[in-house]
Specification:
The protein has one domain. 58% of the residues lie in helices and 0% in strands.
Length: 140
Amino acid sequence: MDPTNQNEGLGSYVAGDSSDLSGPLGPTQDEKMMGMMAHVGAAVGVLIGLPFLAPLLILLLKSKDSAFIRFNAIESLNLQITSLIAYVVAVVLSVVTCGVGALLIPAVTIAVVVLNVMAGLKANEGQLYRYPIPMLRLLK
């Protein structure tokens, strides 16, 4: 199974089950925890200004151990890249509209935190989950 298949719907579960990415019994508790930490760590990182840190560290340190962990870390990093672009657009709009565009910055922040927590909960359940927004998938 290819977890990066572009044919799935937005916000959908990836076709198949997570046992395709780990063992025949599905992801272990450690894999579920690391998958969750890739998403929830990014949510905490958004609030402190380092949203890339947790998923990047998990990707670098644990991705060779499990395809389930790699899938979740890459999915989280792709959301962070997309949200960075959204922040840049919000800042540009803020400059162009004399500050009115600044209202988008808290909206983007709230959306990213909520999406990360939702994906973290799904990862903790051992499910493969794609974010329900159109986003760049630069990392595969």
